[in-house]
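Please review the protein record below. Tell me whether the encoded fold seems credible here:
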Amino acid sequence: MPRLKTQVNRSSHLFLPLSVLAILIIINLIKGADYFKITIVNGAFYGNIPNILFGASELVILSIGMTLVTAASRGQDISIGESGAISSAIFVQYVLRSGNVTLGTILVGFLISCVAGMIIGAFNGTLVSFFNVQPMVATLILFLGGRSIAFIIDGKVSPILANEISNRIGTVIPGVPIHTPIILTAVFIAVVAVVLKTTNLRLYVEAVGINPNAARLNGINPKKVIFLTFLIMGICAAVAGFIAVNKAGRHDSVNLLKFIMMDAILAVALGGNSLAGGKFSITGSVIGAYTIEVLNRTLLRLEVNPEAIKVFKAVFIIVLMIIAAPEVRVFAKRVLDKVKRPSRTTPYARQVD
C-alpha cells in the first residue's frame, strides 16, 4: 500500500510538466503539422525534436544538480553559470597550451575542469553547510565575481577551440546520426539514475531536506550531505560548461551559460519539486528542462520578438506557479467535490420523496 501511494505521488508531481509540455506541443502542431518531421543531413538527424534535445543539454544537466541542492539545502545555487564559465575556461586553457590536441588531451582537460567544478562546489558547500550561510547568499559571491575570474583565466580574450575533436563533441561524430551533446546528456542522466538507484543518496538528501534534526538523530550528518550536493552541483556545472564551450567552438566568459540558473530553478519547480527542500524528482526536473526549451522555441516559432520573450516567459512562470500553488489545488479539489456531491445525493433524495 505505501508503495502504491509513492507511485501515485510521483505521478502527481509529473502531471504539471507533462501537461505544460503537451499544451506546447499542441500549439506547435497547430502552427504547423510538420512539427515532428525529422530530416537527415550529412548522416545526422535534424528537426524540431533533435534541436530541442540538443539545445537543452546544458540545462538538463544543471537542473539535475539544482534539484539535489534544493532538496538538501532548501535553497538554490545561483552561481552555476559562472561555475561553468570558470571550469570551461580552465579546460580551454589546458587544451590550447597542450600543443597537439588529441582525444587524451580533451579527456584530461575535461577531468581537470571537473576537479575545478568540485573545488567551486566545495567552496559554496562549505559556506552553506559549515557556516550556515543561506545558499543564495553564499553563491552570490561567485555570481558576482565568477565571470571576472573566467575572463582573467582566458587572458582577457575569447580563445577559440580550432580542432576537429572539439568540433565533433559540439556537433556530430561522423557515422553517428545523433548529436554528441544529446548522447553526453543521456549518459549523464543514466549515471545519475544508477547512483540514485544503487546508493542511499536519495534517502539521505530527502531526509536532510525534510527534517535535518531528525536526520541527525538517525545517524545522518546533514552538513556532509549538503556539502556533497554542492560537490555534485560543481560537477554538473563543469559538464555543462564543457558541452557549451565545445558547442560554441570558443570560450566567451561573458555570455557562456549566462542567466541559465533562472531556467534551472524554474525547471526544478516546474518538475513538481518543492523549492523548500525535501522529496525530489529528477525525472520531473529533466522534463521541466526540456519543457522550458520547448517554450523558448515555441515563442520564437510564433514570431515573438526576442526582446519580448522574457516578458512572455515571466507571465508563463507566474501562471504556472499559481496553478501549482497548494492553495489553488485545495480550492480546485473543493470545487470538484461540490460538483460531484449533488449527483451522488440525487438518487437517495428521489427515494425519500
